[in-house]
Amino acid sequence: MVKSPVEGSTVVMVKLERPVTLSDFVHPVCLPEEGASLNLSYCNTLGWTRNRELLKRIELKASSMQSCENISIPTVNSFCSEPAYPTIGCNVSIIHLTH
């Protein structure tokens, strides 16, 4: 595991003992080429429920950084987001990007 100089960012590489069988649930992830422009209008993020029993996924849409000014201090590695669909609970969050 490599700790990034950017707070909250961690990179992990794993060497497997044997090849993985690809399926609908196991497949490689395509990463963008260096310098490629990214469409950050929608994204997904994962998080644990309060009791840490379930891992949940939520689709987010990008918001203006001004809507997060009172919530968190933005960095060059973050963008402001809100749920893509109506939800109960928090409606704005800062997502920290990792590279």
Automatic annotation (TrEMBL):
This is Peptidase S1 domain-containing protein. Residues 10-82 form the Peptidase S1 domain. The lineage of its organism: Eukaryota, Metazoa, Ecdysozoa, Arthropoda, Hexapoda. One of its GO terms (biological process) is proteolysis. One of its GO terms (molecular function) is serine-type endopeptidase activity. It holds the Pfam family Trypsin. It comes from the Eukaryota. Gene3D superfamilies: Trypsin-like serine proteases.
